[in-house]
Design the sequence.
């Protein structure tokens, strides 16, 4: 089993803000420089989106976009100029569309703004008790909110 600890706080912030350009940039960074598999990125966004919606729709949308993105990575490279670049960028398209489709459930599913978590680490913060994070990922809540 492969464990992926990628910081997706920038991506979550962009999705919640509805900033399409930042969503694209953060997705490309995760797929490119950090080499996170598309299905893993979709799953990491799907966890808080599922908490924000009582239905299965966000998970369905993200699972489809993750699988389509994985499929697009496996397409053969053509011989035309720029084919390699297009193949590298292609998986981002279904992911970005899926992320923007689940923005509202994601907004409801996050306990606090993802960028708030970093400031909580530097001081005592009561809201931090509802957030558990992976060792190097400071943004994904892995437990439901405390009531």
Sequence:
């Amino acid at each position: 089993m492969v464990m992926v600890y990628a910081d997706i706080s920038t991506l979550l912030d962009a999705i919640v803000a509805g900033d399409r350009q930042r969503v694209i940039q953060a997705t490309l960074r995760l797929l490119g420089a950090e080499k996170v598999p598309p299905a893993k990125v979709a799953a990491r966004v799907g966890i808080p989106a599922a908490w924000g919606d009582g239905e299965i729709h966000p998970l369905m949308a993200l699972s489809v976009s993750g699988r389509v993105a994985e499929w697009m990575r496996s397409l053969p490279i053509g011989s035309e100029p720029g084919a390699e670049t297009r193949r590298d960028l292609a998986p981002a398209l279904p992911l970005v569309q899926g992320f923007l489709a689940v923005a509202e459930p994601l907004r409801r599913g996050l306990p606090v703004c993802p960028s708030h978590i970093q400031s909580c680490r530097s001081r005592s913060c009561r809201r931090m008790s509802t957030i558990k994070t992976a060792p190097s990922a400071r943004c994904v809540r892995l437990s439901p909110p405390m009531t």
